[in-house]
Write a structure and sequence with these properties.
It is a single chain. The chain has one domain: Domain of unknown function (DUF427) (Metal Binding Protein, Guanine Nucleotide Exchange Factor, Chain A). The protein contains no helices and ten strands. The chain has strands spanning about 10-15, 20-25, 25-30, 35-40, 45-50, 60-65, 70-80, 85-90, 105-110, 115-120. The chain has a seven-stranded antiparallel sheet with strand order 1-4-5-9-8-7-6, with no helix packed on it. It has a three-stranded antiparallel sheet with strand order 3-2-10, with no helix packed on it.
């Protein structure tokens, strides 16, 4: 029987500065309260509080996924005139206890959006 191996180390930290998230040049989120999640050999993932997103650009989809370390993820598409980023955003609405900090936050696929970090806020 194959072992699933040890759980990856996940760290979550506050991201200093103000994180701007843009989709085709349109700002869809801005937050001075963003978190950065580091997991195993994956690239860093920015999480932004839902209060800091511009909801008019987000549409919930039926897509879901499951991570054994974080829980069930719900997805959103980004929509602006002429462009749609299908399932470009996800959220763990009821995350595992070990990553409770990301409750109420959303994350973005970096190939769908651009990030800009303003250090002096």
């Amino acid at each position: 029987m194959k072992s699933s191996g040890p759980s990856p180390v996940i760290t979550i930290a506050e991201q200093p500065g103000c994180l701007l998230v843009k989709f085709h040049g349109i700002q869809v989120a801005a937050s001075a309260r963003a978190l950065v999640l580091l997991e195993a050999n994956y690239p860093p993932v920015y999480y932004v509080p839902r209060e800091d997103i511009d909801e008019k650009y987000y549409a919930r989809t039926d897509h879901t996924s499951y991570c054994p370390y974080k829980g069930d993820a719900s997805y959103f598409s980004l929509q602006i005139p002429g462009h749609e980023g299908a399932n470009a955003v996800w959220s763990y609405e009821d995350p595992k206890v070990s990553v409770e900090q990301i409750r109420g936050y959303v994350a973005f696929y970096p190939d769908q959006v651009t990030f800009e970090l303003l250090k002096d806020v």
